[in-house]
Amino acid sequence: MNFPSKLIENAVEELAKLPGIGRKTALRLVLHLLKAETEDTNLLSSALVRMRTGIRYCKTCHNISDQEVCGICSNPLRDRTILCVVSDMRDVIAIENTSQYKGLYHVLGGVISPLEGIGPSDLHIQSLVERLPSSEVKEIILALSPTMEGDTTAFYLTRKLKDYPARISSIARGVPVGGELEYTDEITLGRSILDRTAYSS
Amino acid sequence: MNFPSKLIENAVEELAKLPGIGRKTALRLVLHLLKAETEDTNLLSSALVRMRTGIRYCKTCHNISDQEVCGICSNPLRDRTILCVVSDMRDVIAIENTSQYKGLYHVLGGVISPLEGIGPSDLHIQSLVERLPSSEVKEIILALSPTMEGDTTAFYLTRKLKDYPARISSIARGVPVGGELEYTDEITLGRSILDRTAYSS
């Protein structure tokens, strides 16, 4: 693509570095910004810079935070006996949106992935081990994606945490609510039979 | 969605104002920026601001330009007897990429669309009428999208330009190269029969 302006070309190239945005989409975004007020572009770009330079991570759970300790860790209403271990911030947001969980979190910052060169020491696993003894945690829920990497990380964590006296659980795997049995893959369906739950009578 | 940080929330909201980017995609972009170097965010945001504040429009053809007159209008190698009227800058880029056109352009800045409240006076039509008498233009190609709005604009332009002694043509409409007759809609196929071209013998 040949651009009539170096400024446009630059902006398109920077936008196209973002995941899922190609040069055509980037150009569409640039044209949108050109049609909108200059102020909109200023707001966008200052929000990005302030976010990137101002962001902090909670020193307890490593979730993203505006303060030294995040809103969840410092909330006296949260249940301090239960800890949910997740891969990243998006998982915290997803679980918070369910309104089904009132405990604390621990954000690993990824999962073990030898292919991508991510080992246990690249994740916040040591800090998890260190925060437990002085905590009131009685149950640790591993809420990791049901992938090879997620399962490897879960396996590593269960071994790493075996000396700490807490129940370690995993989020349930089974047929998604609203899903059709017919179209569920064999592994998930098999798992849903093995992990069947009794109707409370 | 509840965000653990006002800074993140702000950045997500600003990104989600862009067309085709929802809050989930915006969050993915934000997390990408957080994982990348701070410098990357600075580069992106300064490219956007410089683009938005520094951009100029060619005073002759209204294409986007870094100078007062754009690279195409000022290029002595372009054919000044032929003028292509397009809706916006993207069309110029698309036509330039074909390498099939060596004439000049005129960018209208949109098409007539009563539904969106865009009338002839909102477009660069008057300046088109004004630039013609002092030009060498012998043919005007209307390269507008084959939509209701594009056709309306083309009809308006043919009437507006009827006193100017130039041949007015439209880009060909027909079966796309590589397209299958079977899957071409009736209107396009009908048009392609009416506008059939003779094999040069």
TrEMBL record, chains A, B:
The record, for PROSITE patterns, names: RECR, TOPRIM
Record domain Toprim: where = 81-176
Name listed for the protein in its UniProt record: Recombination protein RecR
Which positions, given as ranges, span the membrane?
none
- Do you know which NCBIfam families this protein is assigned to? recR (TIGR00615)
Pfam families referenced in this protein's UniProt entry, alphabetically: RecR_C (PF21175), RecR_HhH (PF21176), RecR_ZnF (PF02132), Toprim_4 (PF13662)
The record ties this protein, via SUPFAM superfamilies, to: Recombination protein RecR
| Similarity remark | Belongs to the RecR family.
Q: Its biological function?
A: May play a role in DNA repair. It seems to be involved in an RecBC-independent recombinational process of DNA repair. It may act with RecF and RecO.
Q: Which Gene3D superfamilies match?
A: 3.30.60.80, 3.40.1360.10, 6.10.250.240, RecR Domain 1
Which source organism does the UniProt entry give? Rufibacter roseus
Q: Which CDD domains match?
A: TOPRIM_recR
Tell me which residue ranges form C4-type zinc fingers.
58-73
Keywords from the named record: DNA damage, DNA recombination, DNA repair, Metal-binding, Zinc, Zinc-finger
Indicate yes or no for the key word Nucleotide-binding: no
